[in-house]
Structures are given as structure tokens and as C-alpha cells.
Amino acid sequence: MPSSSLLEINSISKYYGGTAALRDVSASLQVGEILALMGHNGAGKSTLVKILAGSTRQDSGEIKVAGKTLPGGVREARAAGIAVIYQDLSLFPKLTVAENIAGEPTGRRSYSLRAAKRAAAASLERVEVNSPLLACLDRNVEDLPLAMRQRIAIARALTYDSRILILDEPTAALSLADTDHLLTYLRKLASGGVGVLFVSHRLSDVERIADRYLVLRDGAVALAAAPAEVSRNALARAMFGEGAEKDVAKPDRAGLLRKNALEDALTVRHATRSGEFKNISVTLRAREIAVLTGLTGSGRTEFAESLVGLRRFDSGESRIAGKPVSFSGPRSAMRQGVVYVPEDRLRSGLFRRRSTAENLVGATEHLRAQLGFLGKQTIRAAAGISDFAIRCQGQDSALETLSGGNQQKVLLARWQMAGARVLILDEPTAGVDVSAKAEIHARLREWAAAGAALLVISSETDEVLEVADRILVFHAGNLVMDGLRAEIDREQLMAAMLHGGALREQAQPRGEA
In angstroms, rounded to a whole number, what is the distance separating the alpha carbons of residues 465 and 469? Predict the structure, then answer.
């Protein structure tokens, strides 16, 4: 390896039973380099990251940091200068921002919250001058949105003298502006000599930042090359095999909707919540996919959570089939067929330490009652695994052992099995690869075609334009766009997201005065 190699991965293999998670993987990370690690869900990326972090041991091969063999173990990896920011962030929700960033025990007899706050503030200033988190040092992490928790995790990693920074899907929950800032910052960090392993499914982000690509497929290296040497089609073939670059045929959604009269499924009138959104009127219709977007802090997620009782309207009302409804929480909403699928699947949507089968069949109390016998549970779980092509070691495998994309499939399969009529999905493709994203989009269309009303929250402009029948845009707590996808182009969408476009005094849903 060249003398500038910061990290050397030599012939690493890892097996679980008879299944190879990694097979003879070799790679290197140079000083000041950003290496993009890619591959479809289950390709071996997470296993490799866990081995580098010291939380998992390889069966064979060795890892060297600055020429020295890494013995294995989390403390040893950290001492060698490896810092990992996992996709689930691994924060402590009940602790404050300062405690999460700089509050780890240091061996001193006394713990100083004041010192932790100073260290946290210094770390935040390294990530972003005048970071909004500086005003939140005393707030609990669980009270902050996911995008801000992402920043906390980055700041925590930078409190250590890290030479190798590993980021697992770092931009999945970030707005366009936050993504731009992060990529710019990582480039500056690399120019200072830090090596960055950037794990991402977002090709647009990878193309902007990567010095080299490392692609895994089925546990082995499928491609190692510089971006200038690889076309997008070649990259797709490396990730998914021959034929992966071909477009998937999509149904004519616009034609389908024109032929069907759409019934109102959930109607919201003049909803307001102080400091978050104001005077919002929206109707979700059966067979239609409405996509709600907007930058972080626009009020979109807060509005979606209010639809199922996670937050309360200060004023306004919701109606189902013309009758007023009020939900005390997601369980109450679920009883009337309204389901909320949260953005943070591991923290709020799934039981990470339970089996895949338990997660699939545990959607509702009435469903669990129907599955009183193990045989029925096994059959239903097997159907979910098969229908959604969930890659796992079996029904009994722990949910946390699945890749991020397969965990998301479990979550979506659960609600398909429960027969929800209105689905509110917050970033349903966050952190999944291109192939899994296409599968999820196809599922959304299937649900809509079968009569469900869908509200999809998405930060990705391409996804909004790809999947929406109708586009809703929030800006600064206002609904500034509500229109048919066929009548909205990219420039109009971006203008609405970034500065509200032509803000109407009162944005009304289609078909209303």
C-alpha cells in the first residue's frame, strides 16, 4: 500500500452460519481522501463498518491504521482515531445536547456539565458557525427533529481526535441546505488530512464529494475506481448486476386517476399549531399519492404528526367520511384506519431486538389477536418476507441484524398486512439503495391503486417528482403549493421549497373555493 494509506483493509471475510456477509474484501483509504462505500441493501456495507468500528470481529483478514494492525474492539478502534456515525445515530434521547456531544465519562472523579457545554459548543462551531444547536445545549435530544440529531452525532464524533471519519447515510435526513453544508464541511475536513468513508445511497451526493468509489455486491468488491472512470450505468451494474440500469416500467398514474372519481379519505380544515404551521386545509383522497415536501423547519413533519395525534391542533379540525375525528395518538388513529409510519424507523417504528416475524405481525392489537396460534403467525410472516423480498436469515432473526433497507421493508409490509386505509409515511425511502427505493415506490403505487390514500413526506426533489400524483409544499409554516404533479416542474417546486414561490393568502386544496 502507498505510504499515504491511512486505512488498509486486507482480505476481510465474515460469515454468519453458512452465509458470507463479506468475502475477501480489500480496500484502502488515503490521507485526505473521501471514499464512497456503496452497494445494495445486504451487500455487506454495514458489516464492514461494524468491523472497522470494532463492534464486530472479522473471521479472517486484517485491518491497519497508519501501518499498525488494529487488534479489534470498540475502544481500540476509537483510540486508533476511527469515529463512526451510524445511520441510527446512537444518541441518548433522554440526555441533553451537551451531554450527548461531550458528556461521556473521562475517568475524572467529578463530572462538569459546564465543561461539557463548553466542549459541545466548541465542537458545534467546528461543524457550523452560529449553529442553531448552540441555543439548544440544555434541551433533551428526543425533543429535537432528526436533522438536528444528525448534526449532534457529527459534532460528537469531532470531539475526539479522529483521523478516520465513517458516516453511514449522513445526508438521508438532511434538507438541501444542510446537505450542501455537510458536503462542503467534509471536503474541508479531508483537506486537513482526515480520511472520510462516506456510506450513501444518494448518487447525487456521492458524485459531488467522492474521490473514489468502492462498491460491494453480495459481500465482495464489485468495483473500485475513481468517478471519472465510471459511468452511472456501470455503477448501477456493479451494485445490482446486469440490466440494473434499465428503467422500471411505471403505470400511467395520471391516466388511472382521470378514469376514477376520487373519494375523500381524510380532510383537514384550517389547522393551526402555534409556531409550527397555520391555517392549513388539505384533503387526502383514495387512490391518490400526495407528496408533502419542504425544507427542515417548514412545519411539514409537525403537521403530519398532528394528523395522528402526536401533536394537537390549536384550532381547526379533521374529518373522515364527513364526520369530525380527534385522535389521542397513533393507536387511536390506527383504529380508524389512519397509520403513521415515522421517519426514524428504529427509534419509533420497529422493535429492534425482536424477531423479524414479531415485527411483521405486531402491527395492531386486533391483528395479534387474530394470530393467536403460532402457525398463523408463521404463515403471515412468511408471506410478508416473500412479498416484500426481505433479505434475512429467517423469521427468527433479530430485526437489528437486517440492513436498513430490509428493516424499512419490514415496516411497510407490516402496514400492508394490517390493511390501512390512509397511510402517512415520513421519508419512507431514507437510507435505502436505488433498487429498494424502486421497490418501495412500486408498493406505494400498489396501495394507491387498491384504494388507499397516501401522504408521503419526502426531502428528495427527484423522489417528489417521481412518485407524486399531487404535490404539497410547506414553507415557514404555510402551505404554499397544492397542485397536480403534471402541472408542476422542477423549477416551480424548488422555488416553493426555497422561498415559498408565489405565496397565496390561503392555499386551498384542489376542487375547493
Answer: 9
